[in-house]
Amino acid sequence: MNIPLWIITGLLAAIFLVAGANKLFIPYEKLARVPGGGWVLEFSSSFVKTLGTIEILGAIGLILPAMLNIVPILVPLAAVGLALIMVGAAIVEFRRHEYKHVLVNLIYLALTTFVAWAHFWSMS
């Protein structure tokens, strides 16, 4: 895998690891009070914790399979899964009229899509 792809993948993994950890370990009520955290109130606490867990697993899936060269197909699959999460996040933020957050989510969507495409393409 080339260096720019590793950099993008590593940055995405770090972003999703932090985002997932925040959802998993910060109390629901406190998470809802942070700037841009109002979306949390539209979902149950268990959904937010599950989403955090999935984001952490996705971050791990972006790095470990490629690094260890064990089942490398998991990397693009993790990227596709995280891209789907970003589609959902963009929709939620759009409905809430939080357009700056929509833009950030679309950037993450583009990056995760690029990582998925690059890995699928390198396997063929």
Describe what this molecule looks like in 3D.
It is a single chain. The chain has 124 residues and is mainly alpha-helical. The protein has one domain (3-123). 81% of the residues lie in helices and 0% in strands. It has 5 helices and no strands. The chain has helices at 3-25, 28-33, 45-68, 74-95, 99-123. α1 (3-25) packs antiparallel against α3 (45-68), α1 crosses α5 and α3 runs antiparallel to α4. The longest helix is centred in the last third of the chain and has 25 residues, at 99-123. The protein is globular. The chain starts with a helix and ends with a helix. The mean pLDDT is 95.
Can you give the mean pLDDT? 95
Domains, number: 1
Strand content: under 5%
Shape: globular
**Cα-atom radius of gyration:** 15 Å
* Overall strand count: 0
Percent of residues in helices comes to over 70%
Sketch the topology as an H/E string, one letter per element.
Answer: HHHHH
Which consecutive residue ranges, at least 5 long each, have pLDDT under 50? Answer: none
Subcellular location: Membrane
Pfam family, one: DoxX_2
Main location: membrane
Keywords: Membrane, Transmembrane, Transmembrane helix
Please give the structural blueprint.
Blueprint: H1 3-25, H2 28-33, H3 45-68, H4 74-95, H5 99-123
Helix pairs in contact: 1-3, 1-5, 3-4, 4-5
Keywords: Membrane, Transmembrane, Transmembrane helix
Organism: Thermosporothrix hazakensis
Protein name: DoxX-like protein
